[in-house]
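JOB MANIFEST
job_type = single_chain_structure
chain_count = 1
residues = 751
[input]
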Amino acid sequence: MTRTKKSAVKNSENEISVNNAENREHKKKNLHLQLFSIHGLIRGESLELGRDADTGGQTKYVVELARALGELPQVRQVDLFTRLVHDKRVSADYRQEIEPLSERARIVRIRCGGKRYMRKELLWPHLPEFVDNVIRFNKHEEITPDLLHGHYADAGYVARQLSKLTGIPFVFTGHSLGRSKKKSLAAKGLTEKQMVEKFNINERIQAEEDVLRTAAHVIVSTSHEIKKQYTLYDNADKASFTVIPPGIDIEKFYPYYYDHDENWKKPEPFIQAREKMEHEFGRFFYNKEKPLILTICRPDSRKNIQGLIRAYGKNKELQAIANLAVFAGIRKNIDHLDDNEREVLTEMLMLMDRYDLYGKLALPKKHDPTTEVPELFRLAADRQGVFVNSAFSEPFGITLIEAASAGVPIVGPDDGGPQDIVKNCRNGLLVDTTDTEALGETIKRMLIDPEKWREYSNNGVNGVREHYSWTAHAESFVSAMDDVIGDFKKTTGSHGVTRPAGWRFNELEKMLITDIDDTLVGDDKALNTFIDLMEKHRDRVGFGVATGRSLELVEEILREKNIPVPDVIISSVGTEIYYGPDLDNLNPDSGWRAHISYQWKPERIKEALQDLDFLQPQKRDAEREFKISYNMEPDDDHLALIHQRLSEWKLRYQLIYSHGAYLDILPQRASKGRAITYLGKKWDIAPKKVLVSGDSGNDYEMLAGKHLAVVVGNHAPEIESLRGNRRVYFADGSYAAGILEGIGHYHFLED
C-alpha cells in the first residue's frame, strides 16, 4: 500500500502491458483450462443420462469437451469442476474428489451445500461456497488457470465470481435459458410465485443477465440460439457470441455398416449391448425385424414424446410399416419421479393403451449411454429405420448428430438447431412437430423410399465427420478464445496493487487487519509512520480494516485521512467484506454474505424487541442488511433480557455491545473475528500469519481468537479481561503507535 504518484502508476501499467505481450504466446501453447458444470451426476464412464432432469445432455457434453480439449497439443491441463456428492442414494463414484478422464483431463469434485444429492434449483444459495472452495483448491494446488468456462446459469455465476476475484477471463455456454423456461412455465399456467419457489427462476435469469454483460465470449451451438433465445435478455446486445457446434465421439458412434465388414472387429462391449437390446425388443415387439422408429430423450413435456406416440398411434400405415421404441430416461418407479417426468411417463402409458400399441411400442426403463445408445442407433440403421426428435423446439439436438454418425436418417423439429444440422449434413427431414399428422406422414415418407433413405444415411455419416467431431469443436474453441486467453485483467489501485483480489491474496504471506476508530486513527504522525512501514512490506504483507463503520463511512475516513485503500475492508461489525484494489472497484464477498444469511430474520428480531423501552433504534443509515443497531445505556440486566427474549422467539443472533452505548445485533455467524477467520480459510492464510488490532468491545471476538492480537493503549475497559491471553499484547502506545509497538513485539514484519 502506498500513496503512489500517477507516473509510478503509469509505469506499472506499461510494465504489465509488456509482460502480458511477452507471456501471452507462451500461455497459448501451455494452457490450463477450467470448466464448471455444477449440477447433475457427472462421471467419466457410464453417465446416467436421463436419470433425472439434471442429468441430461449437458453432463455428457462437458465430459467429452474436457477430454477433447485435453487432447490438444497446446493444452497442458483441463479441470472439470462439479459438485461432490456423498449420498447412499447414488453411486459412490460421485464422492471421488479427483477422477482422471485422460492424461491431461480430470474431474474435480468440490463440496457445496452438504453431502446429499439435490436438484439444481436448490443449489443456488450454496454457490458462493462452491466459489470459495474452488479458490481454496486452486491455491492449494498452486494453479492459475488461463480461462474459466461456465456451463448453465449456475456455473456461469460461479465462473463470473471467480473471474471478478482473479481477473481470469471467463466464457459461458448456457445449454438452456431461464427466460425461455419462464415463458414455457407461464404457458402451463404456473404463477410467478410458483416459478420462484420451485425453480428460483428470477435468480437464474439475473445470473444469466450478469454473465451476458461480463463474459468474454458466450458460446452457442447455432445462430438460432442467438436470434430466438438470447434476444429475450436485456444484456444480449452487450454479449460477444461465438457459434461453435458441439461434437460427438465418432469412434463410439461409428457407422452401422462397419459391422458388415468381415475385417472389422466389433468391440466386445458393443457386442454385449447389441445382444441386450435385441433381447429387450423381443420382450416388447411382435415382430422385432420391422424397421425401427427410435427416439431417445428425457421424459420432459418440452420433448413432446406424447406427440410422437400420437402421430404413430393415429397412422395405421405407419404402425404396419415400423415399430416405435421410446427411451425416455432411466427409471425404476414412476411414483418416485418429479411431477413433470411422472406426468409425461404416465401419459405415455395411457396413450399406449388408448391406441392399443402393445407389440408395436417399446418403453424400456433404462439404457447405458456409453455402449447401448450407440448400438441402438446402429440397430435402427440395420433395420432401415429412422431417428426422431419430436421436441417442440430444440436448441441443438446432440442425439440427431449421434444418429447421423451411425447412419440413421433423422426427422426433427423445424425450429432450432436441427435446421443447421440438416443444412450441413443433408441427412433428413424437418417438420412442425406440433402437427401430429404431419409428423407421422414425414416419418412414413422416410421409411418407404429406400433410395432416399440410403442417401440420407450416407450424407449423415459424412456430414458429421466434417462438421461435428469433438476434435474440430475443441480446435475451434481454443482458436476462438485466442483474443482472451492469458489476458488477465489487472487494475492499479491507489495503493499500487496491480492484481485483483485472487492474485493478491495468493501472493500474500501475512495479513495485518485493524480497527479504524481509536485504533488506526487518532494520532496522525503515528498513522503516517504506520503507512510508510507497511509500504515497505506491501509485496508480501496485506493490509485490511475491520470496523463497525458502514462501507460509506469507511470510504469517508480513508479519504479524509489519506489512508491507502486496504486489500480487504470488513465493515458493519463484520457483516460485510469487500476487496480492493480501489474505492471505485470494490467487490463484495458473496461467499461471506451467503454464509451469514443462514437463519437471519431481522424483522422478527425487531418485532421481538419492540416493547423494550431501553432500546433506542439508531438512525436508519446505521442499519444494514445484516446489522440492527440500537443505542443502549450500560446495564447487564438489559443484555440478559434481550438474550432471553430472542431465545424465547427461537431466533439466531449475535449481540455486540461496545463503548457502553452501542448495541449491534448480527447474524449468528457474523462478527469481525469470524469474518477474519473466514478470510484465512478462503485464502489459506494461517492464523499465526494474521495480526489484528483493536480497542473496544466490538473488537473483542477478533482479539480473543486464534490470531496474533494487539490492544492499543487507549483501549476501553470492556476488553481488560483479555489480559493474560498469550496471543494478546497490550501496548503502551495509543492509536497507530500501539499497532506499531505490537508489530515489533511479535517481530511480525521480519522474514
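[summary]
The domain at 599-668 is CATH 3.90.1070.10 (Hypothetical Protein Ta0175; Chain: A, domain 2).
The radius of gyration is 31 Å.
exit_status = 0
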